[in-house]
């Protein structure tokens, strides 16, 4: 971890991007491995969670002409859900707009089958929250095997609820 990061127990804070999240107990926290992926957390079984930061295509958003932050979040979530469904060849189970720690947020759940040469076809559940603040899109995405969802659903929702972006 660099000087812009802190990990105290399960609470991860990123000072550069001004966010904190409490990862599920017992999950290992590692550096992100993608262009936008800041942090990963891995569960004891095939569970994983990551925090991604992206700059929105503000030109595209302006062209679509959202009249409010809620409309902009809807557009961002639709784009994110569409991307998840295409990448995973999955189906949207639910999506909604709400609030996470005072921030307008969008939530979605996509069920899909992960194909792996070693294990074959594994039904997976992907959940994501998306928030917009400081001109950035913050996405927290969790993925667990469908059969493990009953064990991790509450912990994932607690992590999502713990996500904050400071002013």
Helix coverage percent: 10-25%
Task: Report the β-strand fraction as a percent range.
Answer: over 45%
- Can you summarize the main beta sheet? 7 strands, antiparallel
What is the CATH topology assignment?
A: Protein Transport Mog1p, Chain A
Specify the number of helices: 3
Could you say which structural class the secondary elements and strand pairing correspond to? alpha+beta
Low-confidence stretches: none
Mean model confidence by pLDDT: 84
What is the CATH architecture annotation?
Answer: 3-Layer(aba) Sandwich
- Total beta strands: 11
What is the count of distinct domains? Answer: 1
Order of helices and strands: EEEEEEHHEEEEHE
Radius of gyration: 16 Å
| CATH class categorisation | Alpha Beta
Question: How far apart are the termini?
Answer: 23 Å
Q: How would you explain this protein's 3D organization?
A:
The protein is an alpha+beta fold. The chain has one domain: Protein Transport Mog1p, Chain A, CATH 3.40.1000. The protein is built from 3 helices and 11 strands, in the order E-E-E-E-E-E-H-H-E-E-E-E-H-E. The chain has helices spanning 58-64, 69-88, 149-162; strands spanning 5-8, 11-14, 19-22, 28-31, 37-42, 48-54, 91-100, 103-116, 120-133, 136-145, 164-165. The strands form 2 sheets. The chain has a 7-stranded antiparallel sheet with strand order 4-5-6-10-9-8-7, with helices on both faces. A 4-stranded antiparallel sheet has the order 1-2-3-11. The longest helix has 20 residues, at 69-88. The model has no long low-confidence stretch (mean pLDDT 84).
């Amino acid at each position: 971890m660099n000087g812009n990061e802190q990990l105290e127990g399960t609470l991860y804070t990123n000072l550069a991007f001004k966010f904190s999240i409490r990862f599920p107990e017992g999950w290992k926290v590692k550096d992100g491995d993608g262009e936008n992926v800041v942090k990963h957390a891995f569960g004891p079984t095939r569970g994983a969670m990551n925090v991604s930061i992206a700059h929105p295509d503000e030109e595209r958003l302006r062209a679509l002409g959202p009249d409010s932050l809620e409309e902009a979040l809807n557009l961002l979530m639709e784009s994110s859900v569409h991307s998840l469904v295409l990448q995973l060849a999955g189906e949207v189970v639910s999506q909604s707009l709400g609030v996470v720690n005072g921030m307008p947020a969008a939530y979605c759940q996509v069920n899909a089958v992960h194909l792996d040469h070693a294990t074959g076809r594994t039904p997976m559940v992907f959940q994501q929250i998306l928030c917009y603040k400081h001109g950035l899109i913050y996405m927290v995405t969790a993925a667990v095997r469908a059969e493990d969802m009953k064990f991790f659903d509450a912990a994932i929702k607690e992590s999502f609820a713990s996500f904050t972006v400071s002013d």
